[in-house]
Specification:
This protein is an alpha/beta fold and 204 residues long. It has two domains: 71 residues, Rossmann fold, CATH 3.40.50; 111 residues, UDP N-Acetylglucosamine Acyltransferase, domain 1 (3 Solenoid). It is built from two helices and 24 strands. Strands 6-9-12-15-18-21-23-24 form an eight-stranded mixed sheet, with no helix packed on it. The protein is globular. 38% of the residues are buried. GO terms for molecular function: tetrahydrodipicolinate N-acetyltransferase activity.
């Protein structure tokens, strides 16, 4: 497997896979990144580089992960990673380029889109639909029947109550309790939505 990203999320992914997966190379656009956990960083991906195995984009920022995935989708197959301690229902669906980390739970009839992060100890209950480029942060809890739109961030220890619809490119603050729908591009802090929307990602 190749890894794109040599910062914090990159370290997490290396630590997650190195005991069972050969790491063929690590890329990062930042020329100051020379090494990560003992592995050399090869720099940016050359335009004509031929991938000999799958790639995982180890970047936590949803918009950046989206941009890179769209740039590379015609050149490489994206890897999925599910930690052995995670519980992933045989009746749940997983897109491409996703990671389900230690202790996370994804229940029956739930769907994860492409490039989704389900972080440590997060719980996604039955019949949830998680859009592309979403990040479910550590210990977040999604009850049944929830939709989370493309690019949204669900903060650590947040609780989303059953049936709530969260729009695209929303941010739910850490520890929040979401009890009603959130429109596209809005931020929810505590127990209420903020009055002004945050900027949305548009185009490629």
């Amino acid at each position: 497997m190749y890894i794109y990203g040599a910062s914090g999320h990159g370290r997490v992914i290396i630590d997650l896979i190195e005991s069972f997966e050969k790491i063929h190379g690590i890329f990062d656009d930042n020329p100051e990144k020379q090494e990560i956990l003992g592995y050399p960083v090869l720099g940016a991906i050359p335009n004509h580089f031929i991938f000999k195995s799958s790639l995982f984009i180890a970047i936590g920022d949803n918009a950046t992960r989206r941009r890179i995935a769209l740039d590379l989708e015609d050149r490489v197959r994206f890897a999925n990673i599910i930690h052995d301690s995670a519980i992933f229902s045989k009746r749940a669906y997983l897109g491409s380029g996703c990671v389900v980390m230690e202790g996370a739970i994804v229940k029956v009839n739930s769907t994860l889109g492409d490039q989704v992060i389900v972080n440590t100890g997060a719980s996604i209950d039955h019949d949830c639909n998680i859009g592309d480029y979403v990040h479910i942060a550590p210990q977040a809890t999604l009850c049944g029947g929830i939709n989370v739109g493309e690019g949204s961030l669900i903060g650590a220890n947040a609780i989303i109550l059953p049936g709530v619809q969260i729009g695209k490119w929303c941010t739910v603050g850490a520890g929040s309790i979401v009890h009603q729908d959130i429109p596209d591009g809005h931020k929810w802090i505590g127990n209420k939505v903020m009055p002004q929307p945050v900027p949305m990602v548009v185009g490629k």
